[in-house]
Amino acid sequence: MSSTELPSVLATSVAPKVSSVRVAAGERLRTVGLPGITLTVRSRPPAREGLPPALYVHGLGGSSQNWSALMPLLDGLVDSEALDLPGFGDSPPPDDGDYSVTGHARAVIRYLDAAERGPVHLFGNSLGGAVSTRVAAVRPDLVRTLTLVSPALPELRVQRSAVPTALLALPGVAALFTSFTKGWTAEQRVKGVTALCYGDPGMVTPEGFRNAVEEMERRLALPYFWDVMARSARGIVNAYTLGGQHGLWRQAERVLAPTLLVYGGRDQLVSYRMAQRAARAFRDSRLLTLPDAGHVAMMEYPETMATAFRELLADTGKLTDTGATGARS
C-alpha cells in the first residue's frame, strides 16, 4: 500500500482470487468506495517513505494492468498507484452510468481528493490521456507532471483502422458486434487486440498472451462489458465534438504542469501526425516519438518511457523532489 493511506472508511484491502484480476509480483489491490463509484486500485509498496505519488490511468478496454510493466521501473522515483476506471478492470459500473470523458475525470478527481494524494505525477494512455488532460486542466492543484501516451485528443481525419472502435459509439452496434463475434474465442479476440494496439505483436511473450486471454475470458463473462465499452466509446466521440472552453484541445492549452507526450509511429488508433500539434498545444511539453511503437508504448517500451520520465523530472527540477539517485531498470 502507498505511503499516503486512504481514510479507513474508504479503503478495503482485498486478496485477489484465482478467477479475478491478475496481480504482478510486488503489486497489491484494494477497493475504494467513494460516493457513486467503487474503484479498484493497484499499487506497489514505495521504495522508501516520502516519494511523490504517481497515478496511472488506462485507455478504452484496458485496466490498471496496462501499467504493470512501467511501474516497477519507477520504484525509486515515485509512489505508484494505478486505478481501474469505473466499469473497467475490476471496478464495477458507476451508479450514474456516466462513461463520458468528464465522468471518468470526475472519478479520478474524487479519488485524489479522498486520498489526499495530490499533487501527483499523472499518467494517461488513450482514453486515459484525454481524461488526464481534463483533470490537469480543471484541477491543476492535483497534478505535478503529466505524461500522456497516445492521448485520445480530437482528430479531424481519423485513421481508417480506428473507425471500428468509433463505431461502437453508435446505438445498437455493440449488440450487433456481440452477435457477429459470438463464436470467436478469447484467443482470437486477444490476437485482434494485440494486432491493433502493438507496433509489433511479436513483442508479446507467450506468458503475456496467456495472461491476456485469461483476462479477456474474465471480462467477457461480465454482464456489463459491452455496454461499458460502447458508452465509453461514445464518451470519446462526444468529447471530440465539444467546442469552446470544454474542448480537449482548448483544455490542453490550459494545462500548467510540465508534460511528456509519447507517440508511436505504428499507432493504428491515434495518428502519429498528431504529435506535433500536441507539442504545440501543451505549453510546457516534451515530445518522445517512438517510430516502432504502437498504441501502448508503456507496455511495448517501458524502459524507454522510464528514462524519458526521469529526464522530464530532471529537466523540470522535480527529480530532486524525489530524493532518488536512480530509477531501477
Automatic annotation (TrEMBL):
One example of a Gene Ontology biological process annotation? acylglycerol catabolic process
Which Pfam families does the record cross-reference, listed alphabetically?
Answer: Abhydrolase_1
The keyword Hydrolase appears for this protein: yes
| InterPro entries membership | AB_hydrolase_1, AB_hydrolase_fold, AB_hydrolase_sf
Name the UniProt key words of this record, in alphabetical order: Hydrolase
Q: Does the keyword Oxidoreductase apply?
A: no
| AB hydrolase-1 domain span | 55-300
One GO cellular-component annotation of the UniProt record comes to:
membrane
Q: Name one GO molecular function term.
A: monoacylglycerol lipase activity
Report the domain of life of the source organism. Bacteria
> Which named protein is this?
Alpha/beta hydrolase
Species whose genome carries this gene: Streptomyces dioscori
